[in-house]
Design goal:
36% of the residues lie in helices and 15% in strands. The protein is built from 13 helices and eleven strands. α6 links the parallel β2 and β3. It binds pyridoxal-5'-phosphate. The site of pyridoxal-5'-phosphate has 12 residues, from α5.
Amino acid sequence: MFDINNILRQNIKNLTPYSSARDEYQGEASVFLDANENAFGSPLDQQFNRYPDPLQFEVKKRLSEIKGVPPRNIFIGNGSDEAIDILFRSFCNPAVDNVILIPPTYGMYEVSANINDIKIKRVPLTEEYQLNLEGIAEAIDEHTKLIFICSPNNPTGNSMNRDDVETLLANFDGIVVVDEAYINFSRQKTFIQELTEYANLVVLQTLSKAWGLAGLRVGMAFASEEIIEVMNKVKPPYNVNEASQQLALKALQNIDQVNSWIKEILIQRDKLVLELKDYDFVLDIYPSDANFILVKTTESKAIYNFLVQNGIIVRDRSKVELCEGCLRVTVGTPEENITLLQTLKGFK
Ligand SMILES: Cc1ncc(COP(=O)(O)O)c(C=O)c1O
């Protein structure tokens, strides 16, 4: 049975979080002399002289409407990368605990584990790019605190079998993190709706992909109230800056624009797949539920270099386990995709 008290680090359990000026006073006032800000203003058109809302209330309220989750079940980070780091810092004891990672997958889980001195147990995806449930069950020990599942997965692009993820959620006594950075492009349903079912579920999402706001650094974690409380306790007090909060809030009003981009990106993705299939050096293109495709080629390094020489950058994933010969290509605008395809005609 999952019990947060069994996996929370003792020092975090005992932690008295930083209490900011904004935490200590809430309400209406006209004179704020409590946070050592510059009361005269900022040398910008817009005023940024005040610290931002530490708990990003307005953004959470809007996210809550869109996602159908109460604000108390939402954490907002400086990108979902911050949420990943906070999960390690909250639940994993350095040099003692371990995390299960499922390569090939998003590289920051490993970097974040290494920064926090958390042992990594790797259970690679199967040849079909699905979870190896038996391997994961064997790898779990008393010090396993987190399992990261990326679905749709970066860099393979496919979604994990939903029943397999639920099997883990039902049987693992630690936290299962389902990273849904690419969920808006997927045919699969989000796991957010399972939050009421599983107390050990954390769903990560981000405004960096479909929402087109990678530069703002706004990522979300959705989880039980008790997990969110821990994450809020551990995060830096003002982790999401005022400009990002304001702009995220504005962008979140424009859901129609985002939905029409998603449609267009999916059309472009299918076109790209169809066209690329005809190139001699393309051996395979894996089915994608994301805004990128993983392309298996005869000579990835040479193709990568050729594209670089022509001013086009894709991601060479050929050194990654189970991705030999593979390039990861993000779906661009129609013009960018045509440029890519035309350029590739000149290869060899
Ligand atoms: C699977 C996955 N999760 C998280 C992130 C990071 O997202 P953010 O920009 O919110 O930190 C990425 C970025 O590439 C990603 O591919």
